Amino acid sequence: MTDVTATTPGLYPLPDWAKDELSDLKGHQKDDLISGDESGAIAEAYDRARAEIVDRQREAGLDRIVEGQLRWDDMLAHPLCVHDNVETRGIVRYYDNNNFYREPVVRGELTADGDVAAELDSGSEIDQAVLPGPYSLAALSTDEYYGDDAAFLDAVAEFLAAEIDAFPAVETLFLLEPSLVTDAPEDGADERASEAIDTVAAATDADVVVHTYWGSIPEKPYAHLMDAAVDAIGFDFVSDHEGSIYNIQEYGTKDEIALGVVDGQNTLIEEPTEIAERIEWVQNQVPAEEFDRIYATSNTELFYLPSNRAEAKLDALAAAPAEVSR
Predict the structure, then answer these.
(1) Cβ partners under 8 Å of residue 152, min gap 6
(2) Does domain 3-323 have CATH number 3.20.20.210?
C-alpha cells in the first residue's frame, strides 16, 4: 500500500507580528538583510517565529515538519548570500515573479559554514530539511572565483554536501530545483547537473526528493535526472500536469514521488478532497507504477502567500491523505 505523506517544500511566510518586529529591528534597505551573523533581538525574534511555524505544522498534522526558512531573505540563494566568501551585489528578480534577491557573487572558496545546520538544530521536531539544489543555486549565482561553469557547479554541490554533513538526523531532504525547468541545462550540462545532485544526495542517509516546479522538465534533462541516485522526483501538477505526466509515462520515475498538487502562489484554498482527487488522477494515469510513497505537497515555496492563507493550505494538505482511495 502506498504511503501518502503530507509535507511542504518550506520557505514559509513570516508571521505578521514577526514582519513588523523584524522590519523595525533590521531596517528596510539591502544592507539590512540577513548576513548570517545576526544576534540579540533579531535572532530571538526569528527563534520565536520558527517555534511558532513548527508548532503550526504539528497542529495541522503534517507528516513532515520543516524549519520554515524564515531567515531566507534571498530565497533559494540564501546559503550563498550569507557565506563569508560571497559578495552580495545588486537586486535581481527571483525567477519570473515580483520577488527579488541579492545577487551572490562568489569571490573565494565555498567552504562549509554551518548556517543551515544551525537552523535545523533549533527544533527537535524538525524532520525534513530543505536546500536549494546545486543546479538552481549555481544558476542564481555569479562565479568570479572558479572560472568555469562545470567547476563552479561542482563546487556548489560540494559546498551543499559539506553543509549536509553538519545536519542533525532528518527523515527527508527536499532539494529544490526550479531552474531545471525555467533554465534547463543544455547537452552535456544536463548530465553534469545530475552528477551534482548525486554529490549532494550522497551526503545524507535521509530520503532525498529533487523537487521541480514552474512547469515540467524538458525530456533530456529529465532522463538524466532519472540517473541520479535520489529517492524521489517532485513534479508540479499545478503549472503543467500534462508535461509532468508525460515524463512519468515516457521515462518512468523513482519508487517514491512528490506531487505538487496545492498552489503555493494562489490564495485560493484547496479542499482536502480536491487534493486527494489530484493525487488519484496521477495514480490512474500511471497504473503500472506502484509508488512506495507519495509526498503530497505544494508545488512551490509558500512565502508568496499571506500567513493565514499558507496556514490554511497546511491544514488542507494534512487532511488530504485520509481522503485518498487505497
Answers:
(1) 106, 138, 141, 143, 146
(2) yes
